[in-house]
Design goal:
With 71 residues, this protein is mainly α. The protein contains 5 helices and no strands.
């Protein structure tokens, strides 16, 4: 999203994220649907889910269910 916002193109995104060029069209459609703040929030929630599951604070299923409920 940030690459697109600053005028980058699909080739730059594909290279940066290591996404095959033939997968870029559907990827770009998804990117355009979300605001950057929402993406950042979702990434933070995923990080929390991963951290809590890895340190054993919650089991993976519970963490995933909590994540899904929050989105």
């Amino acid at each position: 999203k940030r690459i697109l916002t600053r005028g980058g193109n699909q080739a730059e995104i594909a290279k940066t994220l290591r996404i095959p060029p033939f997968r870029m069209a559907p990827f770009i459609k998804q990117v355009e649907r979300f605001e950057i703040k929402r993406v950042e929030r979702l990434l933070h929630l995923l990080w929390q889910f991963d951290w809590e599951a890895k340190r054993g604070a919650v089991n993976e299923r519970t963490a995933m269910e909590t994540f899904l409920a929050k989105i």
